[in-house]
Automatic annotation (TrEMBL):
Keyword tRNA-binding included in the entry's annotation: no
Pfam families per UniProt: Glyoxalase
UniProt cross-references to InterPro entries, sorted A to Z: Glyas_Bleomycin-R_OHBP_Dase, Glyas_Fos-R_dOase_dom, GlyoxalaseI/FosfomycinResist, VOC_core
Top-level taxonomic group: Bacteria
GO molecular function ontology, one term from the record: lyase activity
Keywords: Lyase
Name of the molecule in the record: Catechol 2,3-dioxygenase-like lactoylglutathione lyase family enzyme
Residue stretches making up the VOC domain: 7-141
Length: 142
């Protein structure tokens, strides 16, 4: 069966240390590492972490920026031109993320209520940064 529904497949984040980034996303955010052993063995250029069954975050070493040649000016994408990435979570996962980030002393914004997103107004949302300065919003809808 062919699936014709558009989906977000992956987001590539620039990181200084991919292994440290995986550690953060596993422990503080609760995501599963993908291709970590292959990266550590030098078999693949970067590891990833799984957001859900259909979406991953690729953790691209910042040192690869000069190799980006897919479009003119691609090298200039290093340095966080994206404002933020938003993770929509079920309420329990949202609360668990808040707890893990607090346990790992990750600075977070205040909770907001009613922020607009792809599914309307979110019940609660907040922002945090990863160790490389990438900004994330987490939210849940009821």
């Amino acid at each position: 069966m062919t699936d014709h529904i558009p989906r977000l497949d992956h987001v590539v984040l620039w990181v200084r240390d991919p292994l440290a980034a995986v550690d953060f996303y596993e422990k503080a955010v609760g995501m599963e590492a993908v291709r970590l052993a292959e990266f550590a063995a030098g078999e693949v250029p970067f590891p990833s972490v799984r957001v859900n069954d259909e979406t991953i975050l690729d953790l691209m070493p910042l040192s690869f920026a000069e190799r980006m040649r897919m479009l003119p000016g691609s090298v200039d994408s290093a340095g966080h031109p994206v404002n933020h990435v938003c993770l929509s979570l079920p309420r329990g996962d949202f609360d668990a993320l808040l707890g893990r980030l607090t346990d790992h002393s990750v600075p977070m914004s205040e909770l907001a209520h009613g922020s607009f997103g792809a599914r309307g107004k979110a019940t609660r949302s907040f922002y945090f940064r990863d160790p490389d300065g990438n900004v994330f919003e987490a939210r849940h809808y009821d």
